[in-house]
Amino acid sequence: MKNILVIGSVGQIGSELTLELRKRYGNNNVVAGFRSTKPVGELLESGPAEIVDATNIDQITEVVKKYKIDTIYNLAAILSAVGESKPLAAWNVGIGGLMNCLEVSHEYNCALFTPSSIGAFGGGTPLDNTPQDTIQRPQTMYGVTKVTGELLSDYYHKRFGVDTRSVRYPGIISNVTLPGGGTTDYAVEIYYEAVKTGKFVCPLGKGTFLDMMYMPDAIDAAIDLMEADPTKLVHRNSFNVTAMSFDPEIISAEIKKHLPSFEMTYNVEPMKQAIANSWPNNMDDSCARKEWGWNPKWNLEKMTVDMLKVISDKHAKGLI
Ligand code: AKB
Question: CA nearest 276: which of 124, 145, 168, 121?
């Protein structure tokens, strides 16, 4: 039986990953770690919750000791767009937090999952069919923290045997907790606006292709990688994983199939556009497929049906 700590449990990924981990490993075996925003509802009621700020090594240590934690999912991060206006905070959370998790994992023998991102690419990376191992010279602070995080995680594995594992997430599309401060957030916002107002002003231009993934696949990626047979892993930090690639025109057309009066216009935000232009159009995730069986289940068509249904239900109930 695993004893798991999720750091960042109230965030976009954490809020859904924590509940799924509780389903699979038992409610009492998964601690929801949070910093300032306390979990609410099912997240709070279904299992233990503790204050764990990734930048505070004493808080991580205390919880690891108290619950005999053997696996940490470290989801604390400041995303790409916000990171450009808060580079020091992005470094402190992304790398200060990771170093704390690596040190605690080394001392208490925990396995550690820390997501990387398509943001780890840029600065000469081939943008089509982006290889697993290629040039990584990102030009955002977020990207700098992600490449550094990949290197540190590999270092702690090779030097100290810490069981570090990671995926390079694309834009994650979900309907429970909104993302905040990312470049790919538009692909979530478009669904909410389509349902609420029938209109969307897109911050990225026509022809901006980016890798994307629906949340259920993102959760499976994290858990499946942590469950994978270590002897099969040639890579560790970090695996390319993707499920779909589209530009704003394609996602808008897909929504229009269900909401024919939906209208999208453009008001390109130069900073977000520059970030998106430096990221892959579509990644090659064959190493993840081969080494641990990555196989996404959701495509744009299926995801759009589900997103519109869930968000319409919430809207009808006055929840959004
Ligand atoms: C962002 O846009 O910053 C994130 C990411 C792709 O890592 N969603």
Answer: 121
